[in-house]
Design goal:
Strands 1, 2, 3, 4, 5, 6, 7 and 8 form an 8-stranded mixed sheet that branches. It is globular, with a radius of gyration of 23 Å. The chain has a single domain (19-233), classed as Rossmann fold, CATH 3.40.50. By secondary structure, it is α/β, with parallel strands linked by helices. The chain has helices at 25-43, 63-77, 90-99, 132-141, 153-167, 182-199, 217-233, and strands at residues 49-53, 81-84, 105-113, 116-117, 125-129, 145-148, 176-180, 211-214. Strand 1, helix 2 and strand 2 (81-84) form a beta-alpha-beta unit. The protein starts with 24 loop residues before the first helix and ends with a helix. It is built from 7 helices and 8 strands; from the N terminus they run αβαβαβββαβαβαβα.
């Protein structure tokens, strides 16, 4: 029996190939643009807000979870909006602290994953992003202050991105960046000072002044509060 030879079949006899336009380069560009437009519209309403970063893995029993919750509560009690990545762990703790206050404002800027959007239940408002980089931009521009609790690669990535944006003047140099937890952050900051700055001279010493290190949510909030009052007074 003679085998079919597809090369001998005229083109018009072949079924048309239908490309899924959602996987095209052009569609991705439009989707990215739409996320930026929607994201900037979402964050534009939060003038007195602070972004909180930290591990998504820490449980309620963790001392850092409690610290983040206390910090969110302090923000809410003083009229600030708590903005997080909207997920579990430190993000949930800060959102919970703000949400449980009578007039607290708790916001989530979430990421959409294959298993679904990881949104904690303590969000007054939230928005979900498909792309990590658009979400990071929104977190970078959503707040006038940035507070970092212990975390993993994602937290460190966000910390260094904010510091780099300030260092390169892509964000105002007087933006407040606070790291909470000396046991966690001091080894990293000592390495930056001793090795990056003094030994290898890959950063300047005044770059180390971009961020502040504290050990408690009360200290972190006092820095945020003083900065807001100073800027508000001098506007």
């Amino acid at each position: 029996m003679e085998k079919n030879n597809l090369s001998q079949i005229p083109d018009y006899d072949l079924p048309p190939i239908k490309e899924d336009f959602r996987h095209t380069f052009q569609w991705r560009i439009f989707r990215i643009m739409a996320e930026f437009v929607e994201g900037f519209q979402f964050v534009a309403d939060f003038e007195k807000s602070v972004a909180i970063f930290g591990s998504s893995s820490l449980k309620k029993e963790s001392p850092d979870y409690q610290k983040a919750k206390d910090f969110g509560k302090l923000l809410a009690q003083n009229g600030f909006t708590a903005v997080t990545g909207g997920g579990p762990g430190i993000m949930e703790a800060a959102n919970k602290g703000a949400y449980e206050e009578e007039k607290g404002k708790s916001i989530g800027i979430n990421i959409q994953l294959e298993e679904g959007e990881r949104a904690n239940k303590y969000l007054e408002k939230s928005i979900g992003f498909y792309y990590f980089f658009t979400r990071k931009v929104m977190l970078s521009f959503a707040s006038s202050g940035y507070v970092f609790f212990p975390g993993g690669f994602g937290t460190l990535d966000e910390f260094f991105e904010i510091v780099t944006l300030i260092q390169t003047r892509k964000m105002p140099k007087d933006v407040v960046v606070v790291a909470v937890g000396k046991d966690f952050w001091e080894p990293l900051f000592s390495w930056m000072k001793n090795d990056l700055c003094h030994k290898y001279k890959t950063i300047k010493e005044d770059n180390l002044n971009i961020f502040k290190l504290v050990d408690s949510p009360d200290e972190a909030f006092e820095i945020i509060k003083r900065d807001f009052e100073y800027k508000h007074k001098n506007q």
